[in-house]
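User: Hey, my collaborator sent me this sequence without any context and asked if I could get a structure. I don't really work with proteins. Can you help?
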Amino acid sequence: MTNHPCKLSEVMLEMAQSLLRDPAAVPSSEAAHVALFFANVAWNECVGLDHARESYRSVWETIETEKPELWNELKSNDIDGMIDELVEYKKAHYPDDRRRILTCGIPEGSVRVEWLPAAAPGVDVKWEMQLYGLVRTGSREDAIRFLQDTRGMSDSEAAKKVANVAADLGVS
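Assistant: No problem. I've predicted the 3D structure and written it out in structure-token form, which is a compact way to encode the shape of the chain:
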């Protein structure tokens, strides 16, 4: 992975905190996760992974069902408005950073981001993210089937590509 002037985990934390009603207060785990999740969606939307918010709506709806009071910690309950605000923030502060976020979360109390470099010209960004996501989550057989279905690869070609992606991600 290439070197960037800013740590993406710090940028995601900065963006997420901008959604909190009281950024100086320690948020609940749910509010922190939802704010970080919205920052992740906004970032990826800016780098060509559009329509991410619709495909992930079930994530925050599940959290909201379990802890509806989390909205008291956020500055709004207008999800699209908050994501739009974060999109504008990313465009204003990090317009040339085209990294794509593969995973973003808060394991053991600190923000962790795994990212892919900017997509090469002509690469289908959504396709590539789906492939990397399948490999990252350990679904190698699904990744091989995905390559066979979408690229017409043989078993051995697909297995080799999946092994290369796993190596890129540092997963075995």
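In plain terms: Residues 29-46 form the longest helix (18 residues). You can pass these tokens on to your collaborator as they are.
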